[in-house]
Design goal:
The complex is a heterodimer. By secondary structure, chain A is mainly alpha-helical. Chain A has a single domain, classed as Arp2/3 complex 21 kDa subunit ARPC3 (Orthogonal Bundle), CATH 1.10.1760. Chain A is built from 8 helices and no strands. In chain A, α2 runs parallel beside α4, α3 crosses α8 and α7 packs across α8. Chain A is globular, with a radius of gyration of 17 Å. Chain B is of the alpha+beta class. Chain B folds into 3 domains: about 40 residues; about 60 residues; about 140 residues, Beta Barrel (Thrombin, subunit H), CATH 2.40.10. In chain B, the strands form 2 sheets. Chain B has a 6-stranded antiparallel barrel. The longest helix of chain B has about 40 residues. The chains are: A mainly alpha, B alpha+beta. Chains A and B meet through α4, α5, α7 and α8 of A and α1, α2, β1 and β2 of B.
Chain lengths: ~170, ~300
């Protein structure tokens, strides 16, 4: 009885891995990397994590948690409150509804899907931010950010899939 | 035990889907509401920002430490490679600076004499707080940095942030143990400046590019490439005469300024405690509006 209780507690503890990891990744993206002109085009790391978990374990990354992570990112990066929170919740909603397209397919399909999502998200945030500031924000950095985000996905995906293998086989 | 549970699950499934859809709509609406509140510049969104910034600041301070170590290691290797050429350059510069020093000392002496002749009152009550940059805006829409010093350390909203090279920006949000600086390059940054030699007044307006623009130059004003820009002190927020940058290009009335401070890789800043700042500051770096202007 005690053993199974501990086992269950352990599973509950492991179930928070995706949420905690996504939050940490969101915070990491806001650190000063000290690379010239990098801050403006820092890849949207949290977007990659939300995309990944929405395909493989949407049950462990509920929409409310995604909203909270987006909110933290909005605050830390100084963007209008709610901007990234909304973008990430939308991404989760879209990807969860389409996850059958990606499950069991090759990585290329998943990466291609991410390309569309990354472009859509950056375009959406650019549009909303421009409306918020009532100004035409320079689109250049946003385009570069979308490409950087797309290019970095395989690395983070590799890390997240290994994490999933290691911690979440039973959870 | 299994049978009834399964049946429960099957019954609960449509309910769960409905709940999920509902929460999705609810969250999107909540985000929209937050944006509207932020736009309307309420105290609520500001408090939310301060709370989250303060809560995450210690984590970021710890996480940014290893990054600094890496930078320093890379710098050290770079320094070794360029040791010889750097040495030659520094000797050269040293020679030049020594001449300037002699010149400056002579001027200072002269100034003291003139001041005593005029019995002029010089207002010099500056002190500063040093702070480390623990976060920069990872994104294309704003230019801000997060510092590891807050009200506890004595910083206040509206104070100027500088590096050894020049002005960095203005403190727009002071939390308990963290604070945020709006960089000169941010879309919402307006700093009253003057051309050093001619004392012509202007605003330095950021537009999210790396080279902020000079605006409100009087119609007959003439600026040239290479002119130095300093703070004018208008509005009483910033002390006058802080070095800001140098004009890099002038095309059809559009003068661009290269800030002296390397805004894209600041490690430490100094917050100037200058006093008498009684200016409306916007709700957060994301807010916009005319009340945010320094003038």
């Amino acid at each position: 009885m005690t053993a199974s209780l501990w086992l269950r507690l352990g599973r509950y503890a492991l179930a928070v891995v995706p949420a905690v990891l996504t939050l940490l990744i969101a915070i990491l993206g806001q650190l000063p990397f000290g690379i010239p002109h990098f801050a403006q085009v820092t890849p949207a790391f949290s977007l990659m994590a939300v995309y990944y978990w929405s395909i493989y374990r949407p049950d462990l990354l509920p929409a409310a948690v995604v909203f909270g992570i987006g909110l933290v990112q909005d605050v830390l990066s100084g963007t209008p409150l709610g901007l990234f929170a909304m973008a990430l919740v939308l991404v989760r909603g879209i990807v969860v509804s389409q996850r059958r397209v990606f499950l069991g397919k090759t990585f290329a399909v998943e990466w291609w899907g991410f390309f569309l999502i990354a472009c859509g998200t950056v375009g959406f945030t650019w549009l909303v931010a421009s409306l918020f500031f009532v100004a035409f924000l320079p689109p250049g950095p946003a385009v570069v950010q979308a490409l950087m985000t797309f290019a970095c996905y395989p690395f983070l995906m590799w890390f997240l899939s290994h994490t999933q293998q290691a911690f979440l086989r039973t959870a | 035990m299994r049978g009834p549970g399964d049946r429960m699950l099957r019954l609960a499934a449509p309910f769960r889907v409905a709940l999920q859809r509902f929460s999705f709509v609810l969250l999107v609406a909540a985000a929209l509401l937050l944006m509207m509140l932020a736009r309307a510049d309420t105290g609520l969104t500001k408090r939310l920002r301060l709370t989250i910034d303060d809560a995450v600041a210690p984590v970021m301070a710890v996480l940014s430490q290893p990054l600094r170590t890496v930078h320093h290691a890379v710098d050290a290797v770079g320094n070794l490679v360029y040791l010889h050429s750097e040495n030659v350059r520094l000797r050269d510069e040293n020679d030049r600076l020594l001449k300037w020093q002699a010149f400056a000392l002579r001027l200072e002496q002269q100034n003291t004499i003139y001041r005593s002749l005029l019995s002029a009152q010089v207002e010099e009550r500056r002190s500063f707080i040093s702070a480390r940059v623990i976060g920069d805006s990872g994104g294309p829409f704003v230019r801000t940095v997060l510092l590891n010093a807050g009200v506890r350390e004595g910083v206040e909203e509206g104070q100027a942030a500088i590096t050894g090279d020049g002005l960095v920006g203005r403190l727009v949000q002071a939390g308990e143990r963290s604070s945020r600086i709006l960089l000169l390059t941010d879309f919402n940054s307006r700093v009253p400046v003057a051309v050093q030699t001619t004392r012509q007044r202007a605003f330095l307006a950021g537009d999210n590019s790396n080279l902020p623009r000079l605006t409100f130059l009087a119609g007959n004003a003439r600026v040239r490439q290479g002119d130095r820009i300093v703070t004018s002190g208008d509005g009483g927020l910033f002390p006058p005469g802080l070095p800001v940058g140098i004009i890099t290009s002038v095309t059809q009335g559009d003068a661009r300024v290269q800030p002296y401070a390397a805004l894209d890789r600041i490690e430490y800043v100094r917050i100037l405690r200058f006093g008498r700042g009684t200016l409306m500051i916007g709700e957060h770096p994301g807010a916009s509006g005319t009340e945010r202007d320094d003038g």
